[in-house]
Design brief:
Layout: H1 14-18, H2 42-48, H3 53-70, H4 73-95, H5 103-126, H6 130-143, H7 150-167
Helix pairs in contact: 4-5
Length: 168
């Protein structure tokens, strides 16, 4: 048990409290009274409240992680490239002052991070150390062939279909 010792402090008497002392600015110690009422326990508060949105978010995140873990490593790599392309397209839209959902930035970054985490978990299971993992990542990034993201492909297909309708 820890003990507290105060050796150099002097506490003024009640008569000295009314008149200010010019030798010291310290006029005693104020002790706050502890509240003796009992607060409700956390479990009873949780039981009485309806489930919050964070609980729903956790469920969605767990579902998303199950989906990610069900994919092969090659599928994860492909989807990571696609999502990074989508993120780039969002940045372009923001810089061009076009309309976009700002919440998509965070959602995509988080999804990419989850995929990379699952990918690294698999590497750890295989016994690949951090240094080799980074070396493999650099090799993988160099092997990526630049291609338009799915949203741009979809936009180009829609434009081509519109032109075909006009020409027909």
């Amino acid at each position: 048990m820890a003990s507290l010792s105060i050796s150099s402090l002097t506490f003024p008497s009640k008569s000295n409290l009314t008149k200010p002392s010019s030798s010291s600015a310290f006029h005693g110690v104020r002790i706050a009274h502890l509240c003796t009422t009992r607060l409700p326990s956390v479990s009873s508060v949780r039981a009485s409240r309806p489930p919050s949105s964070s609980v729903v978010m956790m469920a969605k995140r767990e579902e998303e992680l199950k989906e990610i873990r069900a994919k092969s490593t090659e599928e994860l790599n492909e989807e990571i490239v696609d999502l990074k392309g989508e993120l780039f397209m969002l940045r372009l839209q923001r810089s061009a002052r076009n309309e976009f959902k700002s919440s998509e930035f965070r959602r995509m970054r988080k999804r990419i991070a989850r995929m990379l985490t699952v990918k690294r978990e698999r590497e750890v299971e295989e016994g690949i150390n951090k240094r080799l993992s980074r070396k493999l990542d650099r090799k993988w990034k160099k092997s990526i062939v630049p291609r338009p993201p799915p949203s741009l492909k979809k936009l180009q297909e829609e434009e081509a279909a519109a032109e075909a309708k006009e020409s027909a």
